[in-house]
UniProtKB/TrEMBL annotation:
Any one of the GO BP annotations: SCF-dependent proteasomal ubiquitin-dependent protein catabolic process
Residues covered by the F-box domain: 14-60
SUPFAM superfamilies on file: F-box domain, RNI-like
A cellular component annotation (GO) from this entry: SCF ubiquitin ligase complex
InterPro entries referenced in this protein's UniProt entry, alphabetically: F-box-like_dom_sf (IPR036047), F-box_dom (IPR001810), FBXL15_LRR (IPR057207), LRR_dom_sf (IPR032675)
Protein name per the record: F-box/LRR-repeat protein 4
Length: 353
């Protein structure tokens, strides 16, 4: 015979939960997602009151939803979001006027804002509002936002606290980006996409010397700009997209890049996309004694065996990714097996296997 029915167990659990003090319940509720939090509001009067506490709404993730949903969120949560600090609208659709009104009421404490892939929205009015009231903004992700025009980007020049900025896949001009960097000298992570030419690197070397993360497109760089980036002594992570043309000009630029890497003694992570690497460039990379992670995507090596110089000379290396790099699958298997035997502390991943 059952001592308790399922229903009585549920009541017992509910009674135990509801008996907890307010502070403990708020800590529990703070770990719930937005949907679950809304459901908890219908449990009883006490939970309805608790779920409206503004301290539960310091972060909102509203990713990839329709304009209908975002309109409801903006209107229903405005009263609860007076302490909102992080807002993620990645891939969502919304009426820009609704968003501007929401920012007007809830945006003054924002430190992190992600608008990545909001392609169906004219974000220019939103950037205007952001520049006026989001004075504490540290992170702004506009990757893939093609609707932003020159005037829209000019509003970002009014911000002065940015530390992370993603502009990949936008139409920003290098001159505008330089003006933004001049005003935001605490920049630590910059994803400019193809817009990082020599002018941008010169500005980074002058104004943003605490830079830690950047992605670069070799096609738009020269040794002059690369040498300026050497002033950023705190570089931790670099993503570099090369191109396969093997002319003297590209070799000089690429050697300059690898000389930069070898002099960046704090560098921990480097990602390479496309291109051909010489033995000399691998030797320069091996001088980065603090490297922990290396990734090569569609990269060819003059001498694949020479890659072991990095495994030998980088004692902190933990992960290596070789994606579509060595065409001869038998050679790949032989090399990887040798490396795993000689350097068991390094995990080597290859694709395809």
């Amino acid at each position: 015979m059952k001592l308790y029915s399922d229903e009585s167990r549920d009541l017992s659990r509910y009674s135990s939960l509801s008996a907890l003090p307010k502070e403990m319940l708020l800590k529990i509720l703070n770990n719930l997602d937005l949907t679950t939090l809304c459901r908890m509001s219908s449990v009883d009067k006490r939970f309805n009151g608790l779920t409206q506490d503004p301290l539960l709404y310091t972060r909102l993730n509203i990713r990839r939803v329709s304009a209908f949903i975002t309109r409801k969120v903006f209107r229903c949560f405005t009263a609860r979001c007076k302490y909102l600090r992080q807002l993620d609208l990645t891939g969502s659709n919304f009426d820009v006027n609704d968003f501007v009104n929401f920012l007007d009421n809830c945006g003054r404490n924002l430190t992190h804002l992600k608008l990545r892939d909001c392609n169906n929205v004219d974000l220019n009015p939103a950037l205007h509002k952001i520049s006026e009231i989001c004075k504490n903004l540290k992170e702004l992700n506009l990757c893939g936002c093609l609707s932003i025009n020159n005037k829209g980007f000019s509003y970002l020049e009014k911000l002065e606290s940015l530390e992370r900025l993603n502009l990949c896949g936008t139409h920003i001009k290098a001159q505008q980006l330089c003006k933004i960097l001049q005003k935001n000298q605490r920049m630590r992570e910059l994803y400019p996409g193809i817009h990082a030419d020599d002018a941008v690197l010169l500005e980074l070397g002058k104004s943003c010397r605490d830079l830690e993360v950047i992605d670069l497109f070799e096609r738009y760089l020269t040794p002059h700009g690369i040498s300026a980036l050497a002033n950023c002594k705190n570089l931790l992570k670099v993503e570099c997209t090369m191109y396969g043309v093997h002319c003297m000009e590209s070799l000089v630029t690429r050697d300059s890049l690898f000389e930069l890497f070898s002099s960046s003694q704090n560098l921990q992570e480097v990602h390479f996309n496309h291109g051909i690497l010489t033995d000399h460039q691998l030797e320069l990379l091996a001088q980065c004694k603090n490297l922990k992670k290396l990734s090569f995507n569609d990269v060819e090596f003059h001498t694949p065996d020479k890659f072991s110089v990095i495994l030998e000379q980088c004692p902190k290396l933990q992960e290596v990714y070789l994606i579509f790099c060595i065409k001869n699958q038998l050679q790949v298997n032989q090399l990887v097996n040798q490396w795993k035997e000689r350097y068991p502390h390094v995990s080597v991943y290859t694709y395809p296997m």
